[in-house]
Fold this protein.
Amino acid sequence: MFTKPVKTALLFSALALNGPAAMAGNESQPIPVSVENGTLRWANGEPVYLFGANYSAPFAYGYRAIARRGIDHKAAIDMDVDHIARLKLDAYRIHVWDKVISDKEGNLLDNQYLDLFDYLMMRLQERGIRAIITPIAWWGSGYPEPDPSEPGFAVGYSKNDMNENPALIAAQQRYLSQFLAHKNRYTGKVIGQDPDIIAFELFNEPKHRQAPEKSAAYVETLITTIRDAGVSKPLFYNISEQGNQPKFAEAICQSSIDGIAYQWYPTGLLKYSTLNTNTDPFNTIQACHDKAKMVYEFDAADITNSVTYPAMARSFRDTGFQWATQFAYDPAVIADTNSDYNTHFLNLLYTPSKALSLMIAGEEFRSLPEGYKAPPYPDSNQFHHTTLDYLHNTALFDDGSQYYYTNTTQVSPKQLSTLKHIAGVGSSPIVEYTGSGAYFLDKVGSQGWRLEVFPDVIQLQDPHQNSSLSREVARLSRQQNAITVSLPDLGDSFWVRGVDNANDLVSEAASGSFTVRPGVYWLSASNAVPETLDTMYLLPDIKPAQTLVTHQ
């Protein structure tokens, strides 16, 4: 089903990640973060800034759709984690579908969904990607289909029941205790003590109709349950789902919660067609100024442009958030249909410009100075290392060593001689490319450059219409494309050698020009390939080239 890797090497193995490296071991390991005066800090005192995505392949519709296509779930996860790491995302969040991994009494069920969750966590941790997990979702696992039969304690009850019904609260306590005590079968780490899970959000998008003090008492009950389970990590609770209710927010913040969670959807959700304009995000609730703040879900819903994510990351930092995770990254093996969550659409292969804009957003979210305040519009279109050009649908990031662009640009790098990482869609003054997929160039010491080229993508129809696994919104193509690389340390003539296992190209560039198909290449003055070069390259099956006619 997939192009298999020659070797399993960590992508961007030399990439510097925020915070300490992933730690092995179990209960004896220190908690990696704490909250001090409303700020998440690593053990060394540095502030935490982590940026990434939600991804739900182990659960719900994604699980069923992958199965319907006859694809191995673990192979699908391997590919998606590889691509997520390629985008340099370092944060993962998901609300776990408790309805499919618990029984009516709240006992944890060790089934195929929990197995895949364990496997995903192992793969993410191998790439240094940290997590905040929300153990209770309440949501059924059906969307966008009707909910199937589910065994969990929340089945048949409303969100309000969850914080009002004593028997349901007791089931939640039982479930939380067992979930946090679960040992990951692949890492050997207990969830509640796993140092790569830096915090927990108690409940996904709760709804409260009781008096604020009773709502806070429910939250305190869950906090006590988790603390009694030996978990000392920071705990978050959602206040944005309740709306602009200052008394509710104040009551929650007067509990012993460590942080507050927000969603951020400036364009709303579920328009069922592409939006071409943007709106302001909701006003931030100010009552909890001494609590750490996370954006558990955000997106430019129903939008396919490549300038919105960096602007959102700028706003997050301007507002004091330290964690932000997009909802949701599409599994590549079903992304051609965008049927998982049709109001969202994000995948490196199928939305390359949008994916690179998320990569740029992550760079800015992590690197903007502490206490950053954005300039007013239109000056905010050029901030820190990023320039946003809405009319040309281009975001450009250039910090001297990294040069990333989401569509063709005429802007040259600031310091050509110091470049180490390049990524783009389209062309720039240093890379001319005729394909429509993303490509990445990474300098390997002084030996040469590793080039990774992803397939062309052909857009067939509006991706934000009703969900259907049989509706093809985009198609990948392995066609050959011309590329010209103009880098001073390569010169006009250099060797080009294919290094992934389906790529045996050996040629010499003339005036920096050569042709490529999707794959991994080594560009160097020498034909010798470093033994440690990462050759991993994973793709879904791609249909043979054929003529396509789309009616507009």
The two ends are 33 Å apart (CA to CA). Residues 1-29, 277-283 have pLDDT under 50 and may be disordered.
